[in-house]
Each structure stands twice: as C-alpha cells, then as structure tokens.
Amino acid sequence: MRQTWAFLFRGYHLTRRYISWVIVFNFYALVTSATVALIGVAAQDFQLTLTLVVGALLWNFLSLLYNEIAMSIAYERWEGTLEYTFMAPVSRLIHLCGVSLFSLLNSIVTSIVVLLGLMLFTNLDLHGANLPGVLIVMAVSTVAFVGLGLMAAVLPVMSAERGAEATHIFQGSLLLVSGVYYPIEVLPKWMQPFSLISPATYTLSACRKLVGVGNIASTPGHLVGASLSAVSRELLILTLMGAVLMPLGLWVFGRIEAWAKRAGKLKRTG
Length: 270
Known about the structure:
It is a single chain. The protein is mostly helical. It has one domain (2-263). Helix content is 74%, strand content 0%. It is built from twelve helices and no strands. The protein has helices spanning 2-17, 19-42, 46-70, 72-79, 82-87, 92-121, 131-153, 155-158, 163-177, 192-195, 199-211, 232-263. It is globular, with a radius of gyration of 19 Å.
C-alpha cells in the first residue's frame, strides 16, 4: 500500500510541477464541453441539450482516465525516469495500480470542474436523475477503460517517436464510434459494428437512461431517470469487458516490458 501511495503522490507532485498546464487543459475541457452543450441550447431542444451534456461529461471522465494511463509511460520517458521506474524493485502491478489510482482521482476532479462550469452555461438541473446508478455504471466502466489504457500505454514503449501519437489516434477512434454526441445509427454501416466493442458505447447508453434522456416525462425542472435494473444489459456487458480487458492489459504490458528490456528500449531516446 505504501508503494502504491508513493506512485499516487508522485503523480500529485508532477501535477503541482506543471500546474499551469493542468489549468489550461481543465479550461479547454470546460470550454469544449460548454461549446457542445450550447448547440442544444441554441436549438431550444431540452432533450438534445441533455444528450450533449451527458456525452460531454462522460467523455471528459473516460477519455482523461484513458489518456492519463496511456500516456504515463510517455511522461516517464520525457522526464527521463522510465528506466529507473522499470528497474526499481517494485512489482509492475503495484506501479500500475498507483498510476491508475491517480488517473482516476484526476479524472474525477476534472469532471467535477466541468460539471460546475456547465451549470453556468445551461439550466442544468439533475433533480430526478438516478445519480447513484450513474456512479455504479461509471465505476464498472472504469475497469474496462483502465484495461484499454494499459494496452495503449505500451505504444510509447514500442516507439519513442510515434507511440504517443498512436494513443491519441486510438482515443479519437473511440470518440468517433461510441456515440458521444450523436446516435451510433448515423455512422456509416461499415463503421457501426466497431461501436459494439467500445466500452464507452454502453457507458453512455446506460447513463443517459439513468439521467432521463429520451424519457418524454423528463422536463427541464425534473428529470425521470430509469432504475438500475433498466440498464442491466449494459452493466453485464461492461462487467464482462472489464473482466477481459483488465487482465489482458496487464498481460500485454508485461510482455512488452520484457521485450523492451531485452531490446534496450527504456532509455530516454528510445
């Protein structure tokens, strides 16, 4: 536990070191989310606004969680500590648990900032939404996204020059196929099957039902969120995805780490 907390506090101190960039990224996340939400406000469509707000909030949380884990190795390389971390007498599971825990806390803080900011731009009233159910869905989906992040984190190990770019390409692909801001039915037919293998698709679908999106009884002053049993299918799929992606991510990371040590890929220049 002490070693895990050590990695968490290392992330905290790095955040303090680059606090100006953290503020910039949080501001950008807020402005981007507000810009998307105002599309629904301009259309004077409450359901559209609610759909966009839920999509913006959840995507901020999930993408930041994924990105912080996926880029953790790239950050290590840029700081010049990659070789020291991989050679330290600490199990990789503890190292990755510490990184994932910090990423989760960072994502929660940023999402709260974005939520509070959106309240300044929209008449957002969550009264009547099934918020406990939303938290349960997000907790279950977190496991799957951590697994994705671990698999993407090996890309900067494999290529110092192009690995970080590849993690963002994968992140953008998730944004495209997961129905964050639009129904997946509007995607080209050949692309729609990809949405079925994205955890974000089921997270967004479940959370929108729990908030009350699509329910004709939901009004700007009172939402009518679904019960947790109404999203049992999405919860089951997310649980299965987490059960597969988390061990798979750890296995892939371990295999690439062993290869990187043999091939001498841990030095700063790759």
